[in-house]
Write a structure and sequence with these properties.
By secondary structure, this protein is of the alpha+beta class. Helix content is about 35%, strand content about 25%. The two termini are about 45 Å apart.
Length: about 900
């Protein structure tokens, strides 16, 4: 599972607050074309999946119910200092009275009623004699009308999250029993309709956002399936499932397992979808998703592939999911266990956040979809993560939520691994660095063991300890054992525990049995203890003994539970144009290392591959060391730091040109992008040719960064022509947007024709139109104002209208016509455009808007709108 944020305050009204917001380092290019650590994302995808964050979730408090600014304020509860907080209880695997063998669902989608109704039949086997009642989980949306046990009517009671069914007669241990429940599940309604929720959610159409098509989805991790079907809602039971769902005839519905049949009923204008999963899986992985969809089917080695996206989005399927077959092949081979399910479906839905690995049927948010100009496979990160779960989480499942790292850490690690396979070592290093910074950011707030039974609610375990830290621990184990032994052990673990629930001890035993190496000390140190090593080091060369003396200090605070780590610490010696790496044991508060060296090294690196999960105290190399590090450090993080340090020293022109030439040939696009940003800030025309050369780089992020750098230099006719030519219908969106920015920097008024043309260009998420609109307002003329106003009109996509309103609020301070247009929009039919108008009017600080705001306050019947108008008027009156 991956959580993701939404784009506006209105869209953030989750039923649960997203805590543990990760502090991701700024490894992005200026356009948002790259987000190291969580995959290569286009500008649009970054907007939708701002981070593939790993959220801790607790309850949210939203003040008010209106979509207006005055009522859309979120109160963040205090974050507990650690998972050892006294209010956190101990959570264990749930005890149970029966085994669950099969779930059969016969449901009908009631679109007008936004509900599901029908019958669920549970096949259970009691675990003790004298079995007299069946207890199932049932959320507040469940309305039960009748129950039966083995065909006999049974009394029942529902409340407090449980459905208790009295058996008409006692049942013996081991006797297969059928429990039938007639029920309905009504999706909860929210003041803000466009909100992700657990359980059952219906996607509401919106005339102002015509791409939204009717649909629905279910979402059940760690809990939530009990809010659309009475069920045993805990991961330690596995069963087979069958879903038979009747839906409107224009819909396609995706369930778990193999598609048995689609039956049409012309009289009722419905279609019935019959899905069957004959392999057992945990109940939180049961799912349904569908609606008016574009559907593409394919095959991979006998496995059916289904791509289902909202109607009208079908053209995005190839660019979004075109590498699915490669992922299936890579994971099957690397893991040593072929993809285990009869089909794999990827279904995209509006209002969903991130992705959820329902067995054989992943559900993703619609914002994942990209086209071929959004970058090189920008959806590969989240897609590979969810696919990896089909082994780690679905084939083998954590037996309780204290063990969730066995699902999420593995999926994150294999996501990193696929990026290494598909995009190379530099991307793998970038993924790991992003994960490290995500975890370290969270560790500033609290530290906990990766496996812990003490947590407030299960959702809290879905944080940066579970996802990135766990993935980095697996990377360390990979490096320690070597690829052959590591992946062989993973394969043995899966083969032994396939279709079972597991805990970390099962994994430890699999590694030890497969490799002969006792990995318990490793797990005790990295998995069962909180914290991480905090490392500082220094070195000097002893001419007399011809030794490099390296001092390594562990600075972590033992009061937070972190151990004194025992680490095989790699040390890199750069000398004579070569890098020598020596692994030396570090197991004391201060460890002195003496390494023979015939000459004084040019530089010394601690853990040059950045393989150890540790927090490094800032280490600044001397000027001579920087050049050696830039030339020979194996990890881009060190090379990038060296390049930026050299740039910060403001080298002479000749040295500056040589540096940029060297940086331009670096294998890491992220390093080049970062260096270009800093070099561009120097505004040195001598770098113009170097920047121009990078406009032909194979990486679109680098090409975009080159335009940003050029845009900081004085206008040049040749560069101007290149930028104008780049605003076309073939170049990657990131590069087009950068060219638009540069044109606006050089001469916005003279390039209004290009901006006007770009405003008409189609792009995923209107990314090009947004960049064009941002560019044209820099002209600050009546002509550009008129162009901006055209984007506020009815019929323009909502995202563009909202952006145009924001820009009118922040620009054209001396043009009253902007205020006049905004006051007219106070009565706009689209409330989500209207909500931005209040912010814009306050931002303009133009008191002439007060009259219109006070008039609206007096005349509107909408309490939220009245409050927003009053608050905005008060703010302006204070100006």
């Amino acid at each position: 599972m991956k959580y993701a944020t939404f784009r506006t305050a209105n869209e953030r009204r989750w039923t649960q607050m997203l805590l543990g917001l990760i502090s991701i380092p700024n490894h992005t290019d200026r356009l948002g074309g790259r987000l190291s650590g969580f995959g290569c994302l286009s500008a649009f995808i970054r907007g939708q999946l701002r981070l593939h964050v790993l959220w801790s979730v607790i309850a949210i408090e939203v003040v008010g119910t209106s979509s207006t600014p005055a009522a859309a304020q979120v109160k963040l509860p205090a974050i507990p200092p650690s998972f050892r907080n006294p209010i956190s209880g101990l959570h264990y695997e749930r005890s149970r009275e029966y085994d669950l063998k099969n779930i059969l669902l016969r449901l009908k989608v009631d679109w007008p009623g936004r509900s599901l109704a029908g019958t669920v039949v549970h096949t259970i086997v009691p675990l003790h004699d004298g079995f007299t009642r069946v207890v199932l989980d049932a959320g507040p949306s469940i309305k039960v009308s009748a129950c039966a046990v083995n065909g006999k009517i049974a009394k029942f009671a529902i409340g407090g999250g449980k459905l208790v069914i009295d058996c008409p007669q006692q049942i013996k241990r081991g006797a297969e029993t059928l429990v039938s429940i007639d029920y309905a599940a009504v999706a909860p309604r929210h003041p803000a309709r466009f909100v992700m929720q657990k359980g059952l959610h219906f996607v509401e159409p919106d005339k102002f956002q015509p791409e939204r098509k009717p649909g629905f989805y279910t979402f059940g991790e760690p809990t939530g399936n009990d809010d659309w079907v009475p069920i045993y809602d805990f991961p330690n039971l596995r069963c087979t499932t069958e879903t038979i769902v009747e839906a409107p005839d224009a819909w396609y519905v995706v369930g778990n397992g193999k598609l048995i049949a689609i039956t049409e009923n012309r009289a009722s204008k419905t279609r019935t979808f019959h899905w069957k999963m004959t392999q057992p899986h945990s109940t939180y992985l049961l799912s349904l998703a569908g609606g008016e969809m574009d559907v593409v089917k394919d095959h991979w080695q006998g496995v059916d592939l289904i791509y289902a996206v909202p109607k009208g989005d079908g053209s995005f399927i190839p660019a979004t999911f075109g590498d699915t077959k490669d992922m299936l092949s890579f994971f099957s081979e690397r893991i040593g266990y072929k993809y285990p399910w009869p089909k794999y479906a990827q279904t995209c839905e509006f209002d969903f956040g991130g992705g959820q690995e329902n067995v054989s049927a992943t559900t993703l948010e619609e914002g994942v979809l990209v086209d071929s100009r959004s970058g090189v496979r920008p959806a590969a990160s989240i897609n590979s993560h969810e696919l990896a779960h089909q082994w780690f989480g679905d084939l083998v499942t954590c037996k309780d939520w204290s063990q969730i790292w066995l699902n999420e850490s593995f999926a994150t690690f294999f996501e990193h691994l696929y990026m290494e396979h598909s995009k190379g070592k530099e991307q793998y290093d970038a993924e790991r660095e992003g994960s490290l910074q995500a975890y370290l950011g969270e560790s500033k707030r609290y530290k906990r063991p990766i496996v812990t039974r003490r947590f407030l609610i299960a959702d809290a375990m879905f944080d940066s300890h579970t996802y990135p830290k766990g993935a980095l621990v697996l990377h360390m184990l990979r490096r320690r054992l070597g690829d052959e032994a590591f992946f062989r052990a993973i394969g043995c673990y899966l083969h032994k525990h396939a279709f079972q629930v597991v805990d970390t001890n099962d994994l430890i035993r699999a590694f030890s049995a497969s490799t002969g190496i006792n990995v318990e000390p490793f797990f005790d140190q990295w998995v069962f203890r909180p914290g991480h090593p905090i490392i500082d080091y220094r070195w000097k060369y002893d001419e007399g003994s011809r030794q490099v003396n390296v001092q390594v200090a562990q600075l972590q605070d033992p009061r937070e539970g972190a151990p004194l780590y025992s680490i095989e610490m790699p040390v890199g010696i750069i000398a004579g144009g070569k890098l020598q790496v020596i692994a030396i044991g570090v197991n004391q508060p201060v460890t002195e290392l003496r390494i023979p060296s015939a000459t004084k090294p040019d530089a010394v690196l601690l853990d040059p591959g950045h393989d150890i999960l540790m927090e490094r105290k800032p280490h600044q190399w001397l000027p001579g060391e920087n050049q050696a590090v830039l030339s020979l450090a194996p990890n881009y993080v060190d090379r990038q730091a060296a390049a930026l340090a050299i740039l910060a020293a403001k080298p002479k022109d000749a040295d500056l040109i040589a540096l940029i030439r060297q940086v331009s040939n670096d294998p890491s696009p992220g390093l080049i992008t970062s260096a270009l940003g800093t070099a561009g800030d120097l505004k040195n025309p001598i770098l113009r040719e170097s920047f121009r050369a990078l406009l032909k780089h194979k990486d679109e992020g680098v090409r975009a960064a080159a335009f940003y750098a050029l845009g900081k230099l004085p206008k040049d006719v040749s560069d101007l022509q290149a930028a104008r030519a780049t605003v076309n219908d073939k170049e990657q969106f990131a590069v087009v947007n950068a060219a638009l920015w540069a044109l606006a920097e050089w001469d916005a008024q003279a390039n209004l024709d290009v901006f006007t043309r770009a405003l008409a260009m189609s792009s995923r998420g209107d990314t090009v139109r947004s960049a064009a609109l941002n560019a044209l307002v820099k002209a600050n003329t009546d002509e550009s104002l008129d162009l901006a106003i055209t984007q506020t009109k009815s019929g323009v996509p909502r995202s563009m209208r909202r952006l145009a309103v924001d820009l009118l609020g922040r620009n054209y301070p001396n043009k009253p016509h902007a205020t006049e247009i905004l006051t007219k929009l106070l009565k706009d039919e689209d409330s989500r455009v209207r909500e931005r108008v209040f912010y814009a009017l306050v931002a303009r600080k133009d008191k002439s808007a007060v009259t219109a705001l006070r008039d609206l306050e007096k005349t509107t019947q909408d309490a939220g709108l009245r409050a927003a108008a009053r608050d905005a008027a008060v703010e302006l009156e204070k100006t």
